[in-house]
Amino acid sequence: MFPNLGMSELILILVIALVVFGPRKLPEVGKSLGKTINEFRRASLSSISELDSVTEGIKEDVKQVTKIVQEESK
After folding, report:
1. What rounded mean pLDDT belongs to the chain?
2. How far is CA 5 from CA 19, 44, 52, 64, 67, in A?
3. Distances in whole angstroms, Cα of residue 40 to Cα of each of 13, 23, 45, 53, 66
4. pTM value > 0.70
């Protein structure tokens, strides 16, 4: 997910987060961040499935129009 982030960078980020939020608030921040990422992932999957269904409908419409045009050209 983060290919350019090494162990030293992660430790630095965690130390900064610990200093900024404090040890009592840090678990709550992590939990809310996890929920946010999970909700974004669900919304993305929902959008992708909706896009796929619309694409399939368009493909079917194109097939029908192509069939009608071919019948009329005969």
Report:
1. 88
2. 20, 24, 34, 51, 54
3. 22, 26, 9, 20, 39
4. no
